Amino acid sequence: MWNMNCVVALLLACSATQAFVPTALRQPAAAFRPLFAEGPGKKPEGKTDVVYKFGGSSLADKDRIDHVANLIKDQIALGYRPRAVVCSAMGKTTNSLYSAGEFALEGRVNVDAIRTLHTSTMEHFDMPQHVKDEVNGLLSECEDLLNGVRLIQELSLKSLDQLVSYGERCSVRIMAARLNQIGVPANSFDAWEVGVLTDSKFGDAKILPKAEEICAKEFNRLDPEVVGIVTGFIGHDPKGKITTLGRGGSDLTATFLGAAIGVDEIQVWKDVDGILTTDPRIVEGALPVSEVSYEEASELAYFGAQVLHPIAMQPAMKSNVPVRVKNSYNPIAVGTLIRNTKEINPLVTAITCKRDIKLLDIHSNQMFEAHGFLSTVFREFERYRLSVDVLASSEVSVSLTLDKKQRDAEIAGLIESLSECSDVVETRGLSILTLIADVDRSSEVLATVFRVFTEAKIQVKMMSQGASKVNISFIVQTDCLDRAITELHSCFFEEQCRVNMVNAAAAGNATEIVTKIVA
After folding, report:
1. Each residue's pLDDT tens digit, 452-463
2. d(CA 88, CA 245)
3. pTM
4. Residue 3: helix, strand or coil by DSSP?
5. 365 and 312 in contact (C-beta within 8 Å)?
6. Among residues 304, 314, 312, 255, which one has the least CA distance to residue 276?
7. What angle do CA 110, 115, 118 make, to 5 degrees?
8. Alpha helices (H) along 293-441
9. CB 481: neighbour CB atoms within 10 A?
10. Which tens digit of pLDDT belongs to each residue from 96-122?
11. CA separation, residue 272 to residues 67, 330, 516 (Å)
């Protein structure tokens, strides 16, 4: 026969080892409907099932927490039914936790600022004591972990993943509590409690294929009228250890959940009015884009746009669930809809860039067949684990770019190895300018681009088109990049082009036009 002391002791022991504690035990019974429903049930007529995701800037402080909670309430009144709300850590908490780990290695442990942000938010809203106790308990665990790092002078990737997880885990508990206070039934979940299972590659874990089925079953057990507030960015590996999906992985958490649950739409709430035609820090008049395809969104992310995580589109693409990017600071804005096909296909959809890349020109100095030369080059890239952004090749030469994340030591080793069979020239101070465009009309795009570049005296070091059916990339000097983007934006989006734009009828043969312009 269990007595209450035994139960309390068991729960405390589970908490200390990070074992699963049912979320229902964390919330006041009066604050929500039954946690486990009889089944998924039938969606009420006129309701739109959604997954929401809110990033750190949307949850920066107590005012933003309150704003987002009321935004969710307003969206419910408009007919949306949020099955899950994925939350990042509040504000810059994740960055602060990474810094705290570095300071701990130097012998200093201080989480006062992180603690103040969370405790002051809870005090401001007079949240229930059990919420305060749970969040404070997590912050104390965090401090204990940092003291361990200080003592042993080691911070492994596994420990780092656990360290940075505390931001999201505190955030969801505060958000769920605030929603309950304003009359929206909500429960908080650590992501692994709803099936986010990953491999054991700490720092950059991948969600396991079996996780989708587990997640669907978990949500089928939950009352669909209770909002599940789920941690972004983190999961569990098969041994129950905390992992992270890499920076920006909260987008992936949201699209994974939306695909697994089978919602009508995934909404990623940011601090801009959707995807813009270009970076507004470069062009003040950047415009919201009404819709893009999954492939275009993936290319935008890969080539520098900060709106979505590069791999976040994959679950949505696989399950064909639309994704909408909206602005939590301006919720009436329509945002950008990302889906399989577009109703409108403009000549150019958006302009993005990657700064400070390195260009390698590799020219064979031996009598290789084309396949022998290329296989030698890419074998060395595999050896040094270097990833290529943009590539152009001929039978005896390859030009390609490496972004600033690639380490100089590996690049130096690659160049030394390749020098045995080729001449390698490395050029720095360059950037990739990418047009997300209708490649079927590439003649018009290229003709206009090269006319603008010729007029503005901007030299193209390299160009790539063809591997992707939605982008054309140009390598230009970094000190010309902003001017190039501004000039092209004026042409394609502002009707203020300094040259006469070329239409399809006038374009003719693209190769002939570009050759004449460059000449």
Report:
1. 999 999 999 999
2. 12
3. 0.82
4. coil
5. no
6. 304
7. 160
8. 294-302, 313-319, 370-383, 408-418
9. 21
10. 999 999 999 999 999 999 999 999 999
11. 16, 8, 40
